[in-house]
Structures are given as C-alpha cells and as structure tokens.
Design brief:
It contains 4 helices and 59 strands. It is mainly β and 774 residues long. The protein folds into 4 domains: 85 residues, Immunoglobulin-like, CATH 2.60.40; 75 residues, Immunoglobulin-like, CATH 2.60.40; 204 residues, Single-stranded right-handed beta-helix, Pectin lyase-like (Pectate Lyase C-like), CATH 2.160.20.10; 299 residues, 3 Solenoid (Pectate Lyase C-like). Keywords: Signal.
Amino acid sequence: MNRTLDKLRRHSPRLALVASALLVAAGLSAPAALAADDYTQSVSQLSSTQVQLNFTPTTPALYVDVHYTGVPGVGQQNVRMTNGSGTWRSTVSGLSSGNVLDYWFTYEKSGPQYDTPHFSYTVGGGTTTVAAPTFSPPGGTYSAAQTVTISSATSGATIRYTVDGSTPTASSTLYSGPISVPNSRTVNAIALKSGSTNSPVSSATYTIGTQAGCPTQSDTPNFGPNVRIFDPGMSAATIQAQLDTDFNNQKDTLTAQMADRRVAHLFKPGTYNNVHDNVGFYTSVAGLGQNPGDVLINGDVTVDAFNASDNGVALQNFWRSAENMAVNPSGGNERWAVAQAAPFRRMDVRGGLQLYPASYGFASGGYIADTKVAGQAASVSQQQWYTRDSQLGSWNGGVWNMVFSGTSGAPANTFPNPPETTLSTTPVSRDVPYLYVDGTGKYRVFLPSLRTNASGPSWANGSTPGTSAPMSQFYVVKSGDTASSINNALAAGCNLFFTPGVYHLNQTLNVTKAGTTILGIGYPTLVPDNGVNAMQVSDVDGVRLKGLLFDAGTTNSQALLTVGQSGSSASHASNPTTVQDVFFRIGGAIAGKATNSLIVNSANTIIDHIWAWRADHGNAGTYGWNTNTADTGLVVNGANVTATGLFVEHYQKYQVIWNGQGGKTIFFQNEMPYDVPNQASWNAPSGVAGYAAYKVGANVTSHEAWGLGSYCFFDTDPAVSSYHAFEVPNNSGVRFHSLLTVSLNYRGTITHVINDTGGVTPSGTVPVNVVNYP
C-alpha cells in the first residue's frame, strides 16, 4: 500500500492526498518519522474561531498533508498544506473556545513519506502562538534592489527583524513599514504579541544580481523540436507535408483540445506558393519578416469547424494564432472561424476575411489587431468580435455586439441596431513584440512604439515604428528548463523567449528588470506546482509579456500572474507594461485551482487581449464547482489601466474587479459560471442575488467602458439568477456604453444589465441592451 501511495505521490499529488486519508481512516499509516528533529510544528491562534497549523520540515518537502478532528459538526479533514518560505501552513475555521483539535501530519522526505505522532491543541485554552512572519516578495534571486514587506496573520502582532544573519529577539529592530534590500542578504523576522508565545523565526534570503547584462546568447538559436522554420527555397510539397502532419496531430476537438502538444510554424521572408496551413490547437503561425508584406502566402491560413464532433460550429476553436504575414487567399477569402484565445495580428489579407465556419454555424467571439483586409470582413455568426487599429475594405454582420476602435472601414456606431460599437481611435495601444530575421540571417525581436489615439495598422505607412533587440539578449526557454534556470536568466538581465511546451514551475518567476520582454510562440504553458504563484512582475517601466498560457496547478495559487506589488503608485505613462495574448486556464486539462488569475497593481498597464477561463468542460475529473475552484479572473488596482479585449468567463465570484482610478475598457465578453449549484451558494456579499460579472469598486470616481456583453447559462440549476451583470458606483465619472445581457437558452436569468437599469433577460436568447449609463 505504501509503495502504491508513493507512486501516486509522484504521478498525482491530489490522488496521493486521498489515498493518505484512506490509510489514516483505516487505522494504517506510512512509516513513522526517522527522528523528532525532522520537523518543527506549532499552532497559531488567529482569532476566537480560527487557528493556523504550521509545519516546518528540516529537509524541504514536496508536499505536507495535515489531518485533524475536533471542529464541531465536521468529521476528519485531510488537507494539502500551503508552502511559504519552507513552512507549510493550513488554517482551520469554525472553532470556539474549548474545542480540542487532534492533528497530525504526513510529509515527504527525499522520496518516501512519513507520518508524525498525534498532537493536541485546545482553542482558547491558554497561551497561543503568534503566526510566523511572511515576506513579499519572497526570498530569491533578483537583478535589482527589492522593497520587502513583512507581515503576520496574527492581528495586533508586532514584528522584529535583523539583516545581519543574527536571530531576532524582542529588542531587535521594530518593523514599521517596507524595508529596502539593496544588496544580497538574509532577513530574519519574529512576530510577538503580549500574552502569546512568540512566533517561530522566519527567514528569507535575497540574492541581488550584479551582472551588467544578459550573458551573450546565440543570434541564431536552436528553438527546439516543436518549432518548424520554413524558407522559400523549400518545395511546397515538403512544407505542406509538415503542415499536414502537425494539423492532424492538433486538429481533433475531442483529443487535442486538452493535450500537451504545442507547435509553431515560422516562415522566413519570401513568397510561398500553394501553401495551405490549417491551424489546429496550440499552433502559432507567423511570418519572420520585419513587416507583414515580407512573407507572402499564395494559399491559405485557415481555421474552420474541422471535425465531425464540432457539428459545424466553432465554439471551441481556442488557442491558435496567425501573425505578421500577407495572404493571397486561394478562393478569394481567408477563413478564420475561431472562438477565444485565437488572435489574428499584423496580417495583410489580400482578399476577404470570413470569421465564421463554412457551415455558417455558431462562433463565440474573437480578436483582430494591426491588420489590413483588402476586401470585406464578415462576422455572420460571431456573437461578439473586437477589431483594433486596423483597416478594412468593409464590414458585414453582427449578432450581439461588434466592437471597433481605430479601424478604418468599420461601420458607424449604431448599437444596438445594428449592434455595432465604434470608436474612431484607440486611446493607448502598442503592437506586440515579434520575432524576425534580419538581412544577415540573424534573429531579432522587434519592439513597437507606444501609440496614442491610434487609427489603422502600425505598418500602414511602410514599417512599424519602434526598436529591435538581438536574440543575443534573449534566453531561449525550451524542454528541460526549470523555474530555477529561468529565474537565473531573468536575474542575469536576460529577456525570455519561450518555445512551445509545457513548463512546470516550483517557484515563482520573478521579473524585476525594467524593459524585460517575455515572448512566447506555440502557446508555451506555465503550470505552477505546490501552490506557488506563477509569475510576479515588479512595478517597473516597460515590461512586455506576449503569447503565454498560464494553466493553474492542482494546489491552489493565490494568483497566476501579478503585475506590480500591492500599493504600487509610480506612473508608467510613457513606457507601460503590456500584457498581450496572455491566457489563463483553471481546469480542463488538469484540476487546476487559483484564487485570482491576473492581478494588476501597476499604473498605466495595457491589457491587450486576454482570455481568463475557468473551464466548463475538459478531461474527466478536471472541472466542477468544487474541483476547478477560482474566485476572480481579473483584479485591477492600478491607476489609469487600459484594457483592449477582455474575455473572462465562468469564475465563481466576480469575474472582473476594477478598483483603480481612471480605467478604460474597450470590449468585454463574459459568461457567468454554468455550474452554480443553487442560489443560496451564489449570493454576493452585498446580499443581492449572484455576483456581477464586472464590478467597479465603490471608491472609484473615474472609469469608462465600451462594448460589453455578459451571458448566463445556469445549467445546473436554471432557477439561479444574478441581480445584475455590471455593478458600478453612481457618479458622473463612471460611464458605460453599449452593453448587454443574454440568457442562453433561458437557463437562468439576469435581472438588470447595470445596477438597477435594464430589464430581466427574456427567453429566446434575446439580448437586453443599454446604450449608455448613466
């Protein structure tokens, strides 16, 4: 049985936890610990009803489980603890004075796992232990000085700390606010509270890099086995054979949608005749010219409802992209029938563009930017669509809300009849960074300039304005890389170029250098393990993130991506951080969990096309109300943040929370969670029924948004209702334009569109529209 449990631990930590609990329930256990000094443990009473169980193994553990009884009305609980700076913690709630907890731990040590003896703790029964301090950012390697915040979960506790390696005491320096760590050092801290036992000492070691810049990388790198590089000298038959092989592997919605296979098709400058690239799951197609016209495909780059199981609809055509090339379509029209996470960027379509499947079946929304379409762009069956900074010959069609900003050839602003929302310019935008080959055959990454009040493609007058960086400044991430090797590259001052693959992270990726570019192709997927946060970007100028998929791990992360530390207030108006074609997935492939997907604390950040998705389908056992848990897709705390293209779906509380002043959103598409068990389990803290999809904080006095839609499909219990889809403070500085709600197949209702305005969603999948609010 123990050998079986060890195998489960290696291949499925979640199943290992279940098996461990079954062993305990059966009166069996893993071997006892080798020695008492394998660990220390303590209990911190956080309040009259909550305690925190703490376990610090001498040897770092891959996992620690805690088992406990004694909570009134609750049987034995078996919980995977959360690791923070080497101490594993778990909070127990629902207690009252006099309750006696019986608890014990199961922990991994160098492969095998062990059980501790049982311990006992009486709530309110004498002296309690103060919760150990925690550090933010955590200890690690950073390229620049850090500002470190120390906190304790015990209310009213004071913190004393040292930076000289000594053990802190009650007479050490009092912590009164964030401290500067300008060079490498270890910070030790202890928390104290009168009447309670002092906390254990916590430590965080910070290594501050002194390198002048990234160690020189190759200008003609090996991009690994999942990147196909084509050149015009290759025969069309050879190119087509490779394209067809990849498509057959990536095509099927039932088997490829949640698979680990990733691929990129890169075309060097030149002309390619009779090339037809059908684009499947997790496939990026891109030209390697400096401008779109440098690569010409006389043929097709196509997405359609390819499979019999699709039943002629494109509702699940996710995770694929086309970028930076010209296409002369073989039949006169390019077809790009996609749903979410499928950007069409920097494309020169020398014909028409059909955004619907050949069957005219349903499609649920997509994104175009920096693109020219010589003929007509037709949406037909697309529910919503967003086109930014582009040029169209003309546009045809619209179901619920077609949104345009900075796009010539777009229809007039006529929402809701026809349902077109049009802004003449985009307030602030910046084209994506992209890979290209220069005249000497070396690879470089182009970094487009910031645009304000933009209209039309950035390359409309010849070349995209901006600068370029050599690949010698990029660390190429490919199979075999770990969080440690990636963080070492970041600390050394390197940019990152992620090649197609799935990367498991056992520590947070820390992006601390201003101007860092992180560019991915072929949907590189970052999976945080053991509950770590996947990536933290410091509050610095000009970080560019593009082309990444964050896939939540099976142990809950507090956030998958955070931009800027909490409380960030510096202006980055002249050189903001950009988050572009960055996608988030909770469940579907694995039973992922993350409280928040994206948190933006830095001012002036540009969020340009994200899809944050809590899965409503996928591999068996990876989705369900209590399985792939996630509160919120996007939290914005920074000032003057702009979002162009928000797709956020199925989170269990508010989909978007916007607390920063001066925010702007152009285009929002949302579906509320399908799997709400019942109304009683899904009421907002304010007491109203359900959670709004888009909530603007009560203290916000300036916010504006255009072209928003929220749908409900409460399939588990159609009696469920949400009081409104949009919740905003009532003042003249908070303005919404062209917004709607829909009940899909009349599974549940939304009572109002925004605050108390807009009627209840009717049957017949008919939208309720609000043109302006207030």
